[in-house]
Amino acid sequence: MTDTNTRVALVTGGTGGIGLAVTNRLAQDGYAVAVHYVGNKAKADEAVAAIKAQGGKAIAVSGDVADEEAMAAAFDATEAEFGGLDVVVNTAGIMLLSPIATLNLDDLDRMHRTNIRGTFVVSQQAARRLRAGGALINVSSSLTRLQFPTYGAYAASKGAVEAMTLVLAREMRGKDITVNAVSPGPTATPLFLEGKDQAALDNLAKAAPLERLGTPDDIAEAIVFLAGPARWINGQTIYANGGII
Questions:
Q1: At what angle do helices 17-28 and 216-227 cross, to 10 degrees?
Q2: Which of 166, 193, 182 is nearest to 227 (CA)?
Q3: Where are the alpha helices (DSSP H) in the chain?
Q4: pLDDT digits (tens, 9 = 90+) for 134-148
Q5: How do the domains of the chain map onto residue ranges?
Q6: H or E stretch including 238?
Q7: Which own/partner contact pairs does 201-207 have at CB distance under 8 Å and 24+ positions apart?
Q8: Which CATH number is correct for 8-240, 2.120.10.30, 3.10.180.10, 3.40.718.10, 3.40.50.720?
Q9: How many whole angstroms separate alpha carbon 188 and alpha carbon 112?
């Protein structure tokens, strides 16, 4: 079991582009980390092995983020291994693109189950379990403000993430737990790059004043700041997008 001075983090979607970057940064900062995955156990085991090889502490946990029993079990496993929980980072999400007029409603339901219900389930568990001095960071998207065509349903799901995050921050009054959302701009993750040609990526890269796409490490930097040093930032949505909006 981890000693009581070690902060403990659970990262949902911890093998994805942003999730893996967050997992690695937290481990480098001395956190014991539970790396959550859904389908790819081998990738989660690889992430855990890499952390342990550097002298860190990590376990893999699994489960559908929208399934309250599965996530309760993942939280239980984290607490059993490390003795408590201080930080939850909820990066798990899916993105299905279509004009609103032609979106398959089954795709709408799939996306909203993961992005809205999943965020709610994980936030609910975090609200019940985080220790004093803890932090919950949900991941939204700058697409809630960019109005890009074909992103309507995805942006709607992330708008819901921001709304519940900011309400939960107020509901945690008196518990010394911060609750924030990070909203990345265009970021070079497999989820974002899928289906885009080089011309589209070049245009997106030029949209920000810094004239590049974000990287998973850029987003992890903001998330890890909220996880630890930033105790006076609470109930906020932080736009990590290079100035695109």
A1: 50
A2: 182
A3: 17-28, 41-53, 68-82, 105-112, 118-129, 143-146, 152-171, 190-193, 198-207, 216-227
A4: 999 999 999 999 999
A5: 8-240
A6: strand 237-240
A7: 207/244
A8: 3.40.50.720
A9: 23
pLDDT exceeds cutoff 90 at 93: yes
Radius of gyration of the chain (CA): 17
Does 31 participate in catalysis according to the annotation?
Answer: no
How many whole angstroms separate alpha carbon 141 and alpha carbon 108? 17
Q: What is the pTM of this model?
A: 0.95
DSSP three-state, residue 17: helix
Q: What is the pLDDT of residues 202-245, one digit of tens each?
A: 888 888 999 999 999 999 999 999 999 999 999 999 999 999 98
Which of the following is catalytic: 31, 37, 151, 154? Answer: 154
pLDDT value of residue 190: 79
Encoding tokens for residue 154? 């995805």
